[in-house]
Design brief:
alpha+beta; 10-stranded antiparallel beta sheet; 431 residues
């Protein structure tokens, strides 16, 4: 009887340990999967917000040859975001399938455990029914060979009765767990159906956008002559801006040379200030220790600079010479990037520096600002109003002026980064 009691206690202890371990593992697994699902959902919401923003810009911009080209670029951006949403939905659905499969396995296991407990309990009831008389219990106790054995038999009967009660509680618990698991599976299936419905709608929208992009491309093909003329005009404006910027840089170098070196002395050496400075077409601006440090600080922030405007934005014209993916007859060139936003948005400095020029371009770029950051320069073009003047020290994210909105209702900031006269791709520098 002692061995029966010990085995019973050990079995119950092991069962409790295993059940606890399973519950902990299951909770950890569900928690990890829920976290991944939450991250995917947040990414999907972010992509949807990007699409809403792009759609707003598309609605606001009126048709013209150049704005149609920008619209085509915006549509391409929107389709990339739409495809990202569909990809994220596919990942969510795959995780949901995995979750449902896991819950079905847990439900099957719970069913097996419940059946095993019911069988044990049914056998115990059958055993009690066979020996249900009170006389049998007394006979079982009194037929012991010793008094100690009688005590042990009485204890066994009490523990057996307690075991039966525990089995009833365990059956109720397992049945409750089974019902809850079935409800979880139904809820997961409902969520999966919802995700499938969203994916179908997003796929339909993507098809509509692809059709709209093709229609826009056909329209531009019909306006090829107008578009080429407008692109030629934009190129001339860009070349004029380039010349003006380079002239300002050259003037700055010449002023530095004149300031640093008295007549009849070399351009490199100690000037009136007594500091060791240099200026040349190769080295650019006055090369003091502070300016070298500023150059180093600017360079170390490559890829982390804030965008040069407040609020939301979309890049509609990339850096460099680009063959348009949809229009084989269209090649564009840009010394920087063109960023479209909404009316009233302000330009802001991307790094600390000094305003070295505020000037006006007759056509295309309105007011422009150049800020020097050691050997590096940033250019902010197409401003309607300007808040700073030449010589001002500016801080990172300081407002510089309001961006101009053209007759087609497009608000576009032209932005450049240069290392003296060398043009750099701003997208590699911005965060």
């Amino acid at each position: 009887m002692k061995y029966i009691h010990s085995a019973f206690s050990i079995r119950n202890s092991l069962a409790a340990i295993l059940l606890t371990a399973c519950l902990v593992f299951s909770a950890a697994s569900v928690s990890g999967q829920t976290r991944v699902m939450k991250q995917l959902e947040e990414k999907r919401k972010s992509a949807l917000e990007e699409i809403e923003w792009t759609s707003q810009l598309l609605r606001e911009t009126r048709s013209s040859a150049q704005s149609s080209l920008n619209r085509l670029n915006l549509l391409a951006e929107q389709m990339v975001a739409r495809r990202q949403i569909i990809s994220l939905l596919n990942q969510e659905i795959a995780l949901m399938d995995k979750e449902i499969a896991g819950m079905n396995a847990e439900l099957s296991e719970l069913g097996e455990e419940l059946d095993a407990i019911r069988i044990k309990y049914a056998r115990s009831l059958q055993n009690i029914y066979t020996r249900r008389s009170i006389q049998y219990k007394w006979y079982f106790v009194l037929s012991a060979e010793t008094f100690t054995q009688s005590i042990r038999r009485m204890r066994y009967l009490r523990e057996y009765s307690g075991w039966q009660k525990h089995q009833v509680a365990l059956i109720i618990k397992k049945q409750t767990e089974t019902n809850l698991k079935q409800m979880e599976i139904e809820q997961a299936r409902t969520e999966k159906l919802s995700l499938l419905d969203i994916r179908e709608k997003e796929s339909s929208r993507l098809q509509e956008e692809e059709a709209e992009q093709k229609a826009e491309a056909r329209l531009l093909a019909q306006k090829q002559k107008d578009l080429q003329a407008e692109l030629h005009r934009k190129k001339k404006e860009a070349e004029a801006l380039d010349r003006q910027i380079e002239n300002l840089i050259n003037s700055e170098i010449n002023r530095a040379l004149a300031t640093d070196a008295p007549a009849g002395t070399p351009a490199t050496g100690a000037g009136k200030s007594g500091k060791r400075r240099s200026a040349s077409p190769e080295s650019g601006y006055l090369n003091t220790k502070e300016e070298r440090q500023l150059s180093s600080n600017f360079a170390s922030n490559r890829g982390r600079l804030p965008y040069p405007l407040t609020g939301k934005y979309k890049i509609v014209s990339p850096f460099g010479e680009v063959q348009h993916p949809e229009l084989k007859h269209v090649r564009t060139y840009n010394s920087g990037i063109d960023i479209q936003t909404t009316a009233g948005t302000e330009a802001q400095a991307v790094f600390i520096g000094t305003v070295t020029a505020v000037f006006t371009v007759e056509t295309g770029y309105n007011h422009c600002i150049i800020i020097r950051h050691g050997r590096y320069l940033t250019v902010y073009g197409n401003l309607r109003t300007v808040y700073v003047k030449q010589g001002d020290k500016v801080s990172t994210r300081q407002k510089l002026g309001k961006i101009s909105t053209d007759i087609h209702n497009a608000t576009i900031l032209h932005f450049e980064i240069r290392r003296e006269k060398e043009k750099l791709n701003p997208r590699l520098w911005l965060n």
